[in-house]
Amino acid sequence: MNRSRFFRYARRFLATSLVMAMAWPQVNAQTAPTSAANVSKVRISTSAGDIEAELYADKAPKTVANFLQYARDKHYEGTIFHRVIAGFMVQGGGYDAQYKEKKTRAPVQHEGRQALAAGLKNTTGTLAMARTNDPQSATSQFFINVVDNAFLDPTPIPDGDPVAKFEYQGRVYENVARAQLLGATQLYGYTVFGKVTSGMDVVQKIRTTPTGSGGPFPSDVPKTPVLIQSITLLK
After folding, report:
1. Rounded to two decimals, what is the model's pTM?
2. Residues near 184 by Cβ (< 8 Å), separated by ≥ 6?
3. Is residue 125 pLDDT above 80, yes or no?
4. What are 7-61's pLDDT values in tens digits?
5. Is there a single domain that holds both residue 109 and residue 180?
6. CA–CA dist 53, 234 (Å, integer)
7. Does the N-terminal peptide bond of residue 218 adopt cis geometry, omega within 30 degrees of 0?
């Protein structure tokens, strides 16, 4: 399989603009039981109300640790949900009310495939890490899926090296080097690390807030800012 040919047909980025629905190969992952010791509970207090969520450290340990450290550092206090798309997700944690981007630590390692194998998918109410086109670029920003967004899940890579047969976006590729597929940025998806347990009515309120332009963003910004007042560790 010619590398340039694969990337010419397969390249697709899902980070900074509204992504369009597409068919992804499905994975036979079932959610593994999570012991109480591996579950952290947080309260996301916003100007629209409180949201509570569970975070799964056994399924995405580095991602959960990263998120909790930002919470402990009070990074999220005063940030906004700066990107709200009613049929997609609500995203925040990176900008203050004046649309100034907050300083962050080094990016966290992408754990999307690990989390998917443990049963975490981009379904309604789940929390996932936002990022740029670089899969290894997630820092503090996160989003809450407001619908099932299966196309944001990592693409499973079949066994074998080379991979005898790989289907992507309706095309079939044969004898592709496994390392090539594992390194293809468009196949990484987005790391899910938690799920809303109460306050989905608040999420629904945020998702339906009127939006327009704001700061450096041409669209999808709530006309009335939705502030994250704090993120508190409950357990």
Report:
1. 0.85
2. 6, 7, 10
3. yes
4. 444 443 333 333 333 223 333 344 455 657 789 999 999 999 999 999 999 999 9
5. no
6. 10
7. no
Task: State the SS3 of 99-134.
Answer: CCECCCCCCCCCCHHHHHHCCCCCCCCEEEECCCCC
Burial of 114 (0-12, 13-18, 19+ CB in 10 A): middle
Element (H, E) at 64: helix 61-72
The single residue listed with the structure tokens 């047909």 is 9
Q: Is residue 13 part of a domain?
A: no
Tell whether 218 and 173 lie within a shared domain: no
Question: What does the buried/exposed string (b/e) look like for 70-108 if buried means 16 or more CB atoms within 10 Å of the residue's CB?
Answer: bbeeebbeebbbbbbbeebbbbbbbbbeeeeebebeebb
Counting every residue written for the chain, the total comes to 235
Report the CATH number that the domain containing residue 107 is assigned in CATH.
Answer: 2.40.100.10
Q: How many CB atoms lie within 10 A of CB 116?
A: 23
Whole-number percent of the chain with pLDDT over 70:
85
Contact 36, 215 (CB under 8 A): no
What is the domain extent for residue 58?
38-154+189-233
The rounded distance, in Å, linking the Cα atoms of 28 and 152 is: 16
Q: Is the pLDDT of residue 138 over 80?
A: yes
3-state SS, residue 202: helix
In a domain? residue 19 = no
